[in-house]
Amino acid sequence: MQRHLPQHHQKLIRRTRLFSAGVIFAAGVICFFLSDVIRKGLPFILGAMLFIIAGDYLWEALKDKSYDTEDTDEIANAIIFLILAVVVLLRRNDTDNLIGAVWGILALLLAARHISHALFGLIHRDGKEIGHVLHILQALLSIGISVTLLMDPPHHLSFHVYILGLELTDLAVRVAFDEV
Fold this sequence. Notes:
By secondary structure, this protein is an all-alpha fold. Helices cover 82% and strands 0% of the residues. It has one domain (10-176). It has seven helices and no strands. It starts with 6 loop residues before the first helix and ends with a helix. The mean pLDDT is 83.
């Protein structure tokens, strides 16, 4: 927590963090215990999330004026996520394969990014070697799970919602204890 802020601001930030952690934890528990129910609502949930992601990329591009440089991906990413959101919402009754593919590919991209950062840390010997190795192992596990989703999305979606529940509860604990 930022110590240079007045005490009442620190308390407000702490309460907001705890509230956020509670919401994330509740979402994790719901995903964990009601994965089949959540799976049925995935087109709406994912469609909304993709719209939010598209908006975030667009906001960042406009805020940072990154559209004014040739070497930027924010606008392109916003367009891709916006199109995916529309497709998921329009085909909501027939989206298991699409949702599985999108979820699997996004997980692969995230896992590859984690491996890349961990390898960079290992190469430059930043003193966190054990943490980097653990990140690589976690990323490899994530890659394996993502590949199963890509191979047979309808069969593995409920399991992935279940895993998401576990990840959200872990995230909630880290948010509550100021570790993110």
